[in-house]
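User: Here's a chain of 166 residues. Predict its fold as C-alpha cells.
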Amino acid sequence: MHNHPHCCNFLFLVTLSSISLAAAGCASNSGLARQAETGLYIRAPGVIAAQSFVLVDSAGRPLAELSSAPQGGAGLVLLDRNGKARAAIVTTPIGEPGLKLYDASGTVRTAAIVSNDNSAGIVLYDAVGRSRAALTETPAGDASLVLYDPAGRPRALLPATSRASR
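Assistant: Prediction complete.
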C-alpha cells in the first residue's frame, strides 16, 4: 500500500473544509419533514448542497462534521461531548476508503484502509502516534503482521518470508 515498507504507514488526508451533501428532505407527499416543538410543521428542502455540514445538539455543540478535502476525498468525523474527534470515515483523494479511531486526547489509535489495488491494512498506534502493530493483506491474498517496539521500529514479522515483508 502506497509503497511503504511493510505496508503499514497509511496516510489519511482529511481536511475538513468542503463537501457536496445531497440529502432527501421530504418525509411526506406534501414536502413536510417533521413537526416542530411549536406544533407547526417545518418544510424541508429536497436537496441541501454545502461544502461542510455540521450536526449539532440542541445546545449548538458540534456532534459530527461531514465535509470534503480541498484535494479531493471526503470525511465524516464523529466528535465527543468535548468536541474532540473520536471516529472518522474517510475517502482519500484517490478514492480509497478508510477508518480512523481516536483516543480521548484526539490521537489516532487505530487506522484501516482498503487501497485501490485491493490491498488492505489495519494499524494500531500508541498514545504518541507511533505504529505498534500492523496487519496487512496484499491483492494476492498474502497476509502479514508486523509488531513494533516502543520507538516504532519493526521487531517481529509474521510470516517471516511473506511477499509483504520484502
